[in-house]
Amino acid sequence: MDSTAKKWCSSILVFSLICTMFIGIGVQPERVYAAGSSYYVDSVSGSDSNDGLSSSSPWKTLDKVNGTTFSPGDNILLKSGSVWTGQLYPKGSGAAGSPITIDKYGTGNLPLIQGNGIVGGAVYLKNQSHMVIQNLEVTNDIASRAPGLSGILVEGVDSGLVSDIKILNNYVHDVDSDHNWNYYGGIIVQVLGSATPTKFDNVLIEGNRVTEVGRSGIATYSTWRKRPGVTNGAGDFLPWSNVVVRNNTVHKTVGDGILITNANDSIIEYNTVGYANYTNLYIAIAGIWVWNGDRNIIQFNEAFATQNTRDGQGFDIDYAQDGTIIQYNYSHDNVGGFLLVCSNGSIGANTTTNGIARYNISQNDMTRSIQVSGPVEGAKIYNNTIYVGSHLGPYMSPTIIEHGNWGGFANNTQYYNNIFVNHGPKGYYLGSSTNNVFDSNVFYGNNPASEPADPNKLTSDPMLANPGTAVSKNTVDGYLLKAGSPAIGSGFVVPNNGGHDYWGNSVSATAAPNRGAYNGPGITHEVPTPSPLPTPTPPSPTPTPSPTPTPSATPTPTPLSAELFSDTFNDGDANGWNVVSGTTSNWSMVNDGTPKYQGSSLTGDETISLLSPAYSNSSIEAKVKSTNMTSTGSVSLIARYVDSANYYRFGFSKTTGTWKIWKKQSGSWTTIAESAPFTFAVNTEYGVKAVLKDNQLLLQVNSFSGYVTVASGTDSAFSSGLTGLLAYRSTNLYDDIVIKPSLISDNFNDGNANGWSPSSNSVGAWSIVTDGTSRYNIASAAGESMSLFERPWDDASIQAKVKASSIAGDGSVSLVARYVDTSNFYRFGYSKTSGTWKIWKKQWGMWSTLAEGPAFTFNTNTEYTLRASVKGNQLTLEADSGSGLVTVCSVTDSSFAAGKSGLYVYKAVNSYDDIVMEQVIS
Hints:
The protein has two helices and 66 strands.
């Protein structure tokens, strides 16, 4: 880092100590409660005169919590949807294996703590061990930035050892700390004081989302830090232990993304950091970096769009550390470059030693791909793949390797097996660095005179599969090597090489490896091109601040079993099925190309075969084929079977020539919903699906081209029951039965849109209207409007009927999936501008088209069925314009792993009906 930025100012320390003295002054702890209790807090319905020991008698205020000393095993539970202004600072410590946990209860938005400019942390702990902070939304904003503000702040002050701190799955945003304060911002853990040597042990920061904060997103700090090269702390270096920072997303920080200091053997992994220093202040920052600690590991991360050139890299091994490793990361579009390794020779020579950067991928990083600055000793940089495209422009044309002077130059820097693809105009600068080693690297593209000598260099095409096309750390297959690549098996054997490459392929300790980040065999298949992210444009010197986003809940999907039950009958039996109506002879296994389960009852009453256990919210689908159906016959699925006189039935009635949803209650039949007339053909296989979610009931049919909703209704007679098959005066074959959890089913026939929440940027009002049946309607003539269902998911589909009564020339009607916030989600729908179906991505507020279908005429006042599916990185849009669902476009993208699903309209009046969301299995 820049020398001026690495002066840990004594004035900052003094201010920090003063702030610590005042934090928490107010209500004093009133009494200690029994250990192992749960205390509930509700900002709306609570009362501090309650005992707080149940959700029916919650406390109300933060003062009540802050005035209580809690005991090991206690839970402090904040009501979802509640909002408090002030500081949350409970007292007491947990014990090993029995922490004090701060968490949410109930459903809905995360409980919100608004610091409103409070110095310190909106959520604050001091000298407290064995503590968990999870599932909170935290802000600390103020009209203009001020010193010393944080979202979540955990401190140890002259207390010795502080142990076991977990900060999990929180959403921290809009923290307005001044940019000069390195160790304040989103989530901060720090040691202050000068009387008693103090350190942290066992710190886990995992699963958090941090955005729009100053200065740092996630950081650690200590005053106990003096050692060679670090001269201005309060006392000798006392390194922290067991620090893990994992699976966090940090976006739009005024300064650094993730900065870990004063720790040995820390692990920083699976994080994504974007737009560090997004306001483009000329301060020395990096996306992810470490300082003053040994043997730290930075791995499996993505850093992108870090701004400015001081320093501005995605990753950094900074001074005062030995043996730090940066491996298996993806870096792209960082203005300062991919990698910085530096040592401040003005305050101590050779304080950065034995750093390693290996098996990383850099795509279109700018200014300089690799920078080694100052008297760095013994750095090893090997098996990285560096790609520099030709489109970056003169301002961003990078020097591939730059060795710079910071009180001296590097010595013994070793470069092995790297692939440098240089389509830019610049080259290499090694300055006065000494004893540089280059062996078995690939230098392809521009080969300037400054290119280093290498006894085993290659300048031929390394045959990368599809370089320059990655859009995330999971879409880098373009950097695989094709069969026949000269880089395969021609590398230098590096001792202690880590054992595997970026993709997890093994790397031998003795056999010659590949060059670059890939060590597998040459591939023969094509690697498709995902739609790339727009190349970030550096902000102007005086940028206009981005508007503060409206808070939205962090996606934290609860894992579901992908299937509750499935049966293809290919094992030749019907084990688990029990005949409850008719005789066992009514049901048998037959072979009709493949084994199928046959139910036959050509005369008399129906015959039913059921499964256990009982399900509540679920869907059952099956392939059905009638080989014989009388004029009064029927083939159906059964759900929520209570007993022979009480259950729901979904199927086809030959009597009426329609699909139906029936209810049998106390032995009497009623029709809940019925389709339009339908021609049902014998010896023809149909897909039939019954979907039940609370009081919503839907029947879907797939007659060759995808499932469409043919009937829906609302009923609450039965909440759960068994699932099964029914034949009435017919002989039917059943196959490929799948029962899945039903995530959402809503036909709005109950007259409300409970569970749906318009987004903060919605233009126009969402309402229930009647158009033959109840529908969910939005009139959004002037802009964008969305309504999201409350629950986030990962792999899911959302299907809905859409009907636009008007749509502007640039209007759109769409579905939304993996919605993170108003600036980050996928969208699937129709664009009037292009006259096509499309899949879009909005990321960091920027739109890109991922896939586009053929031209289509979208008519107003016409109902279409749309289905958007996301599974892993596969995105698919299906549309039914009258003859069944067909795939109109699909693409792969992995920018968002999970999020809410919902409805989207732009400059149109549109209504939605018969919405079904299910987990995608295949």
